[in-house]
Request: fold
Amino acid sequence: MKENIKIITNLSISKLIFNYRKTVRDVVKKIEVEDTTNLHRYFSHLTSKYKTTLSNADNTELHQLANQAVNLGIISITKKDVDPPSGCTKDYLSFAPYYYVNENTNPLIKSKENVQHRDSRSNPFLASISDKPKLAQVCARLHLVALSYCDAPEQQKIEYIQAQINTWFIDGETAMNPHMEFAQIMPWTGNQYGLGIIDSRWLLLAIEACALLNDKLDTDTLRGFKLWLKAFAAWILNSKSGLTEVARKNNRGSWVDVLLSYILLFLNEERCVALICNHTLKNRFDVQFDNNGDQPLELTRYNPVSYSLYNYYPIKYILLIDELINNQGNKEKKLKMNKTIFRLEAAITCHERGSIEHIDLKLSNNLNLYYPYSFAQVNTFPAVMPITSQVKLNSLSVE
Reply:
């Protein structure tokens, strides 16, 4: 809890009182999840962008990977190596990733060894016993298969997507409980609470997958997924973990803003998204980006370029959504973001230029997740693609 207090006291009381949480919380309570397949115009715009991107790409490897994902079968949260403190296998469990001890003992138990923090260097042991890689793989595979279907429609792809959504989000026996009380628990400290809503950023990909196939999925699947998302958003807006994450100044707060915006747009609730965008652009942007386009809070990290990219994309989402629903150009902010990209291009490594987001479908200790926010994605954003090896980096266009 000390970390909660430290984060909260770093923000002014006025910003905590007047941010969007209370208003959005009250609206979410009243949302009626509809059976209709009406898409918000943001997702109609996004679907068009994906179709254009797919039509200009060689999708051979995309289809190979999609078929591989379908053949690997369905992932369930209930199959665990370590149970969460609640004892319920449907509760999400993960550990703060950058911590190490000499022996890989149960991270829920306080260790006699000194716990070492190695920023930006994830402990593969913690990943192997967490639900984090499973949730990431669920969302990544849904997205991958949905993109493949858009280019090469096959019924087995729809059946796979519906079965995976049902298993992870809907079925009473296997569905993840819509909260993250035990996400990113500090390992080997004896703590039993988490501060890791950032793990849920992968849900953007699942939401996009359902939006892309909005008129292909059955209404029960869409409604069940939307009901889960509504409950999850309500938990973020009511929980101490949610307050902590919204109050963060760095990438963690940015991603929560985008996630809530995506959920609300998918539920066709636009009014609150305007509030979230205003909050982000007024209370985060000038703190996160200096006049040169650099991000001082991310430049202190062990991998500053990767973290700068990692925060660039949620702010890019917010600018795009804000322009669409608030009709604001945000010209000065866009110019500053342009500076960010050109400065990152000068500093980025060859590895970070495209290969890191490639999907590895194995659930293993050295998991290389579908990481769709590498430098190469600037070309196609907001249509984030699983394979960008053929993207021409010298053709980057930043609007």
Observations:
- The first strand starts at residue 93 and ends at 95.
